[in-house]
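Worked example 2:
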Amino acid sequence: MFFNKKSFLKSEIIKLANEGFINKEQEKAIFGFYHFDENSDFPLLITLAFVFIGLSLLTLVAYNWEQIPNILKTFLLLATLFATHLGIFYSKNSIFQQGFGILSGFVLLANIALLSQIYHLGEDTALAFLSVGCVVLFLALILKSFSVFITGYLLTSVWYFLSFDNHSIHLFICLILLGIIVQSGILFCLSLNAARFLAFLNFVFLNLYLYNFQGNNLNLSTFAWLSLIILGFHLKSYQSYAFFALALTFIALSYDANHLFLSISSISLSALLILLGAINLYFKHYFLGILTISLLLIGNYSNLYPTNAIILKGFYSFFTFLLGIHFIKENHKILGLLTFSLLIVIRYLDLLGDYIGASVVFLCFGLGLLLFARRKNA
C-alpha cells in the first residue's frame, strides 16, 4: 500500500507539471521534499514480476531436457540472453529497461549453469554467482538503476555465503565498499527508502564479513566494536542498525557471560575506540563516550583476569538498561521498549526461583524508569 501511494503521488505531480499547473523547478522541489527521484523509481510489483520470470527460467533449465539437442538448448539460451540485452538498450520505457536488466542477470546465470552441465565445465557454483553478480552490478552502474544494483549485490552475496570457509573472499569487502558508495548517492540518486534498505544490507554484510575473522564462534566483539565505531562517527544512515546490533549484543552478554565475551586483540582498534570515546566526551556526547571506554576496559579486564560471571552479567545488564533509556531519549522508542522487554525476560529467566532477587531487579527497573520520566518531564 505504501509503494502504491508513493507511485500515485508521484504520477499526480508529473501530471500537474505536464498540464502546466506547476513548473519544472516546482516539480523538482516537490520531488526533493518527498525524496522522489524521477529516474530511480521502479514499482515493486514489476520488480518482483521480472524476478519471478528469472526464477522460472532457472528452474526450467534445471529440468533435464534430454530430447532437445545440446546445440539447440545452447542456442535458445544465448538467444534469450541476447534478447534481454536488446530489451535493455532499445526499450524506451525506463521501467522495462530496468526490468530487462534484472532479467538478464538470471538469464546469464541460467546460461552458465546449462553450459557447465552440457559441456562438463566444472561445478564452481560460487564463482558462477560472483561472475553474474559483477556483470549485473556493472550494468546497474550504466543504467543508474537501484533495483538492478540490488539484484547484482544479492547475487554476489550468494557467492560469499557459498565460499564462507574459503580464504579467497576478500573481494567481498570491495563489493561492500561499492554498496556504501552507492548508498551515499555519489554514483546515482536514491530515494529515501532505497537508501535505507541499502544501508541495512551494507551493515549486515559488513558484520558477516568481519565475523569471519573471529577465532571463537561465541565472540561478540565484531558486532559491539563495529556498532560503537559507527555510532562514534555519527554515521546517521547506519545509526539505527548499529543501535539494534549493540542492544542484541548486550542482551546476549547479559544472559550468558560465561561463554559469550568481548575481546580486542588489535592495538590500532583499541586506540581508535579510545580516541572516539574521548572525542565524544569532548563534544558532550557523554553516553557514547562513557559507553565506549567502559566496554573497552571491561572487555580487556575480563580477558586478562578471571572475573565472576555474575558481576559481568550485572555490568552488561546495567549497560543494556542505560541503552534502552538512550533509545527512548533519541526517539528510538520501539527499540527502547524492545530492549527493556528482552532484558526483563532474560533477568526473570536467570532469577527463576529467586523471587527476592527478581523483585529487587524489577523494582530497580521501575524506579529507574520513573526517575528518567520525571527528569524528562522537568
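The chain has a mean pLDDT of 77. The CA atoms of residues 245 and 324 lie 13 Å apart.
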